[in-house]
Amino acid sequence: MTKTTTTVNGLGYRESGEGEAVVFLNGSGDAFTSTHRVIEMDAPGGTSPHVLRLLLDDLSITSANIVAQGEAGPCAVAFAAGFPERVRRLALIDAESEVVPGGLVLCPVLISGGNAGALSGIGPRARAAAPGDASEQLATFLAERLSSFDNRELRTAFGSFITGVTIVTTAGVDGTPRGFTANSFTSVSLEPPLLLICIGKSAASMEVFRQATGFAVNILSEAQKDTSVLFASKRADKFEAARWRPGPFGNPLIEGSAAWFDCARYRVIDAGDHIILMGHVEGFSYSDANPLGYARGHYITLGLEQAAVNAASSSGRTVVGAILESDNRLILLPDPARPNGLALPEVGREAQHGSASRLHELLQREGMDATLGFLFAVFENPDTREQCIYYRGEALLHARGRTVLADFEEIPWDRLPDEAARAMLRRYVAERKIGRFKIYSGDHRQGTVKAVD
């Protein structure tokens, strides 16, 4: 493979190969040109780390793996400590002299050969290689994951933080609208007005957003869950299916959003497997609409949560219940008010108001270890003035007791207390089949409930 040779600040470097960038200081990268973009640079002792930064800037490399041989070690370590966002991994080969970092190195560090003891204190992720072939050790090191965490577990932990839902859009360089759903949105500064969003490097539109002169952030309202799903898909006709208009800076604004910000590109920052797009706000607007929330892989409609609070604090009686499943069957309990009657697990129809804590107590008495999920229905029965709140969830039965398990294809509809319960369960059964639940709120009369989305 042909190597091109040029100079930066009077120092020559050679480039070959394609893939993730690896910069060799005082070493050969011939063994890696089939899998990596290899840059070889001569770095005599005393080379400033700023020269390495200028090299990466000259090559438009936001972050790279650095492999330093011998006397280039101090330069590489100082660069990794001073510019941590620019270094993915650092390998020190036969670096026998003591290295003074001037700050901890946070990236993974491999120390191969030489006096490894003199290089202690570089950083918490530094390790000495066992005796062996340095080239093989380096190949293994460059192929390793940057983190030892399980990605799914880490994503679940991140998902514990409740966020809003946005659609990030751009007109692109050629004027073609592009957009994706994101919850990685953060306000940054008022003076100047700055915000940021993150986009994965594997996203099909990543390069379009990186090159665009600006982008817009549309904060979705709780009535726009379908719009969120649309822009999270790979459909090519997103902007034909959604209502939008150009913003003051030219980027698409989604109609009906709770708020929007039209931005000029301020800065693009490399950040691991994502890039950070920082925008300068050129125009914005907002409304009184409730924003759409998201946590642990589910949408949250804040208006419905508030409706539950209002129902619980109203003057009418509050009934709190749950639609629970165990082994893919519906859990019912005998209804003490009707011979041979069945009802969902619920509290509040007797003298005392219902509450989530009282519902948990009931479930425990009935031998159920239940996890209540998100709201499924919040409604008022004007005939009885009961405020009804129902959750959906799963339960593990420790003891059968009075519990009745019903197959969803054979629910004993005639044994349920009223049409309200039957209508709610019919909706649950229908939405369960497609694996997509909605939340309902409003006045309940003769089995009708107003849908939120």
Present the secondary structure layout.
Elements lengths: L3 E5 L2 E6 L3 E6 L10 E6 L7 H10 L5 E6 L3 H10 L4 E7 L15 E4 L13 E3 L5 H10 L7 H8 L4 E2 L1 E5 L7 E5 L2 E5 L4 E7 L5 H6 L2 E6 L5 H8 L5 H4 L2 E3 L5 E3 L4 E13 L2 E13 L5 E4 L2 E4 H11 L5 E9 L2 E6 L7 E2 L2 E2 L8 H10 L2 E14 L4 E12 L6 E3 L12 H16 L5 E4 L10
Parallel strand pairs: 3-4, 3-5, 5-6, 6-7, 7-8, 21-26, 25-28
Antiparallel strand pairs: 1-2, 2-4, 9-19, 10-11, 10-14, 12-13, 13-18, 14-17, 15-16, 17-18, 19-20, 21-22, 21-24, 22-23, 22-27, 25-26
Helix pairs in contact: 1-2
Compact summary:
With 453 residues, the protein is an alpha+beta fold.
Give a structural overview:
The protein is of the alpha+beta class and 453 residues long. It has three domains: 4-143, Rossmann fold (3-Layer(aba) Sandwich), CATH 3.40.50.1820; 160-295, Electron Transport, Fmn-binding Protein, Chain A (Pnp Oxidase, Chain A, Roll); 298-443, Nucleoside Triphosphate Pyrophosphohydrolase (Alpha-Beta Complex), CATH 3.90.79. It contains ten helices and 28 strands. It has an eight-stranded mixed sheet, with helices on both faces. Strand 22 and strand 23 form a beta hairpin. Helix 1 packs across helix 2 (73-82). The chain is elongated and about 90 Å long. Residues 444-453 have low confidence and may be disordered.
